[in-house]
Amino acid sequence: MKLNKRLLTTIVIVFMFCLVSTLFYVNFISRKEAEPAATTNESAMVTSIQQTSQEPNQQPVLAPLTTEQKLEDFEYMYNLIKDNYPFLKVNQRLTGVDWLANKEKYIAKIKSSKDDSDFFSYLTFILRDLHNGHTTMLHLDDYKLYKEIFTRDEQKKYHEPWLAELNKKTVVDRYAQKKVSFYYTPVTVESDPLVTTEIIEKNKLAYMRVPALVGINSDMKVIKPFLQQIKNYNALIIDIRGNRGGDSTYWYNYLVPMLVNKPVTWTEYLLYRVTPFSEPYIKAKLGDYYNLHPIDRLNQEHLDQLPPEAFTDFNNFSKNVQTIAPIDSVGFKGKIYLLVDHQVASSAEAWANFAKETGWATLVGEQTGGDGIGWEGALPSLPNSGYMFRLELTFGLNSHGAADEEVKIQPDVVSDVFPIGPSDLDPAIATVKRLESVKE
Prior knowledge:
- It is a single chain.
- A 6-stranded mixed β-sheet has the order 1-2-3-7-8-10, sandwiched between helices. The chain has a 4-stranded antiparallel β-sheet with strand order 5-6-4-9.
- With 440 residues, the chain is α/β, with parallel strands linked by helices.
- Helices cover 36% and strands 12% of the residues.
- Helix 3 packs antiparallel against helix 5 and helix 7 crosses helix 9.
- The protein has 16 helices and 10 strands.
- It has one domain: Alpha-Beta Complex (2-enoyl-CoA Hydratase, Chain A, domain 1), CATH 3.90.226.10.
């Protein structure tokens, strides 16, 4: 069956936002700490990715990695994770996996790898044991995306450590060997909006679905007139089920300011393991990061849900007081419901956390996916192979001191979440209808 152009474009964009979400969960926290650092331009996330002049025109011939080289690379990765990764104990509590204790098992896997590609696959599976969507091996699609965005004039200054790794000769040569995925297609987010809307009951209940936090310019062509149309309604449903993130500026700078009538403030915390490896990344991201507080001062915040490793595994923290003020507010005074599920993560998780902390919306659905408080991690490269991987550096806490990666966000109203739409068959929408006394 031949797909129409709009459907094909939507499929491609949805795939791309999953790729991008791991990069652009650069949420409002980092913007506050790093001012006047430039915020990533969301339109850059899914624009046409071109090969840079630093990449070779001809594919270099690489000698196959020896077993010794593979083991050296794994040892390098292992030590970086041991010294810098923030969620080792969270992972152990949630999944029972003691990643560091599995070292010999991982070494055996590396030794059994048949070639370079097999080695990459084993590293992928090894990182999966961390159960973190932002700590993964870097595929060519990701590599090209990062490189194109971070080499832009407005980004270079704030991403020098990232670019230093991306531009290493071993890295450039290695990723010249790889092929883009079947789904890797240059797309432009301005072609078709992803957001969809519906009037469930006239003058009473409206619905807006936001499946991805990308394409704000095109989505606003739908959002602005819709919010003007329903500004006097009793309630609005915003559906972010299945939304794995993208760019936090989508909701932080655009959508939410239209739906508040006065400034809304909330507090979050970030814990850091400042090491010789993480230091350049933290300094590039936060500027004068020495303004971070020593970890023992965290006691003065009187947080009652701190994880046990807060004072043993981290040496610095920041307290981040965030505020969203009205911008082009439509004056909506009704109730807002945010539909969430276990797939909500990254910058979409940050949105749900904001809603929960401030009471801006009532969360309906199931527990979210976590890992939404923080900023993009490091991009280390392995010394022999040139393979790269993402590595989380921040440990995000909510206003009570609980680790977002561990406790996630609990809904205010528990509801079944599948299937998603149509509205007359959707159990989460039916829950809101009952709360609003709207006919089902």
